[in-house]
Specification:
- The complex is a heterodimer of chains A (90) and B (289).
- Chain A is mainly alpha-helical and 90 residues long.
- Chain A folds into two domains: 32 residues; 56 residues.
- In chain A, 69% of the residues lie in helices and 4% in strands.
- A two-stranded antiparallel ribbon of chain A has the order 1-2.
- In chain A, a hairpin with a 5-residue loop joins strand 1 and strand 2.
- Chain B has one domain: MetI-like fold, CATH 1.10.3720.
- A two-stranded antiparallel ribbon of chain B has the order 1-2.
- Chain B is globular, with a radius of gyration of 24 Å.
- The two termini of chain B are 25 Å apart.
- The chains are: A mainly alpha (90), B mainly alpha (289).
């Protein structure tokens, strides 16, 4: 494991991703849902919306880092708003 | 007939999951770990936070490589898609010659990337290559190792030669699926050749064309071997596309941290495109296109 050069923040990051995936897999099995058509015009399921939220969050964080450049944790707040919007409208 | 629901089938994909974990997930995790640390070798790492990401976002080198990459992908798409459609429209629809065409067209697709690079590297040489020698003989100055335009010309022509057949074959498959009744109706209406193309063939090809565009965009966005073999990213940095730059940074300079941050951002773009690709394909399938 030493060669993977683990750090606490990256471990926490992956733990968060893994938890998200597990929670939503369990949700998908326990409460199956029908896909719905959102503002993107394509059918999305909860899983799709998680993926769009995570991917978008990565871009939001990068944009924050490149444009604002400080107070990085605030980017996470933007991500939360974004994720909420994705789950509501996409 | 009702389908049997049997979730046990999921266990059969476990071996694939293990394989993917070793070939993709664990290396990717390591890259994420590298991207937030600095190292001077000997497996010693120092916390660097988001420094490498900041450095990469401000790096002119990365933006330039991205610009070149987008230019490359844009040019090859602008050539390969119309050319592929044109070739498909002019291919025989049935009989002996249609088989001959299909076999000939698939040939470039079967050649490994590094061999394609070597073929064109030799083909373009002024001393022994047919293309380079001929151009030189008719008085056109052509030297892909020194002239930026010639280098770009070579890698673009090479990609067009390698991949136009893929677009043509996909478009051909789309054309073959159009029932004859459409053409007969067009004939009765005395539609012009252009109108037949615009209102019958193009809409019917849209599904496969979309796949062709996305496939070619993603492939060209990740291209490494062919331009590397032909120009090595030169002259200067003129043909240093994203992946060539990344390899230079990671293996040439051994800047693991910045290269890791770079490759993660690169990966994000590819991931986004892959998702778009997947969504478009599934949407088209549902529409029955």
């Amino acid at each position: 494991m030493a060669w993977m050069a683990w750090t606490w923040p990256t471990a926490a990051f992956f733990a968060f991703i893994a938890c998200t995936l597990i929670v939503f897999s369990v949700l998908a099995i326990k409460y199956p849902e029908t896909p719905r058509r959102g503002i993107l015009g394509t059918e999305t399921t909860r899983g799709d919306r998680v993926f769009i939220s995570l991917l978008g969050s990565a871009f939001i964080n990068l944009a924050w880092l490149g444009i604002v450049g400080e107070n990085q944790p605030w980017a996470l707040a933007v991500c939360l708003v974004y994720a909420a919007a994705v789950f509501r409208w996409v | 007939m009702e389908k049997t629901v049997n979730q046990k089938a999921w266990f059969l994909v476990l071996p694939v999951l293990v394989l993917v974990a070793f070939s993709a997930v664990i290396p990717l995790m390591t890259v994420v770990n590298y991207s937030v640390q600095d190292t001077f070798g000997q497996n010693q790492f120092f916390w660097a936070g988001l420094e490498w990401f900041r450095e990469m976002l401000e790096s002119e080198r990365m933006w330039n490589a991205l610009g070149r990459q987008l230019l490359f992908s844009g040019i090859i798409l602008a050539i390969e898609i119309p050319l592929g459609i044109f070739v498909a429209l002019n291919m025989p629809k049935s009989g002996f010659w249609s088989s001959v065409c299909l076999v000939l067209m698939s040939l470039p697709l079967l050649i490994p990337w590094n061999v394609v690079g070597t073929i064109w590297q030799i083909f373009g040489r002024v001393d022994i290559g047919l293309l380079g020698y001929t151009l030189d003989a008719v008085g056109i100055s052509y030297n892909y190792t020194q002239d930026v335009f010639a280098a770009w010309f070579t890698i673009i022509i090479m990609d067009v030669w390698h991949w136009t057949s893929l677009v043509a074959l996909l478009a051909y498959a789309g054309l073959k699926s159009i029932p004859d009744a459409y053409y007969q109706a067009a004939k009765i209406d005395q539609a012009s050749r252009w109108n037949v193309f615009r209102y019958i063939e193009l809409p019917k090809m849209m599904g496969v064309l979309m796949i062709a565009i996305l496939l070619r965009f993603m492939d060209s966005f990740m291209i490494y071997t062919e331009p590397f073999v032909v120009t090595g990213g030169g002259p200067g940095n003129a043909t240093t596309l994203l992946s060539i730059d990344l390899v230079k940074m990671a293996l040439g300079q051994f800047d693991l941290g910045p290269a890791a941050a770079f490759s993660l951002m690169y990966n994000l773009v590819i991931l986004t495109m892959a998702y778009v690709f997947y969504t478009v394909m599934t949407t088209l399938e549902k529409r029955g296109g």
